[in-house]
Specification:
globular, six-stranded antiparallel sheet
């Protein structure tokens, strides 16, 4: 299993590790809005750079579509494909994306993603205040 992280804080790695323990989750990625990988946990032979780019593109397209329709901010984008399900949620530093098996139960994964986003946003805010001090 690939375990790359670009952050010095262990919380992103721990959050991704917890998410990958959910049934059907194959990969977890934290990417910037520009599509650069910040942290990744990949259970399969998926390409980390491609996933980071996909997270950013899907997040931006989902946000743009909602904005164009006047429907508010992106909460969670779920894209079903034949071999995978992509779930993307915005973070303060970009996007959290999970790749699941197509038949994985989306509700428990979405609930855990929401909890992870709250924790990750707190960690990111904490890093900012630590560097400012």
């Amino acid at each position: 299993m690939n375990d790359n992280t670009g952050a010095t804080d262990e919380r992103p790695r721990d959050s991704l590790r917890s998410l990958l323990e959910l049934p059907g989750v194959l990969a977890g990625m934290i990417a910037t809005e520009e599509g650069l990988p910040l942290a990744a946990r990949l259970r399969s032979a998926l390409d980390e750079d491609a996933l980071a780019a996909a997270a950013a593109v899907l997040g931006q397209l989902g946000a743009k579509a909602l904005d164009g329709m006047g429907n508010g901010d992106l909460g969670l984008l779920v894209l079903d494909a034949s071999k995978f399900r992509f779930m993307v949620q915005p973070l303060a530093a970009g996007y959290l994306m999970l790749v699941t098996e197509p038949d994985a139960e989306p509700e428990p994964v979405a609930a855990e993603m929401n909890a992870a986003v709250i924790e990750l946003d707190r960690a990111i805010a904490g890093l900012g205040t630590e560097h400012a001090a």
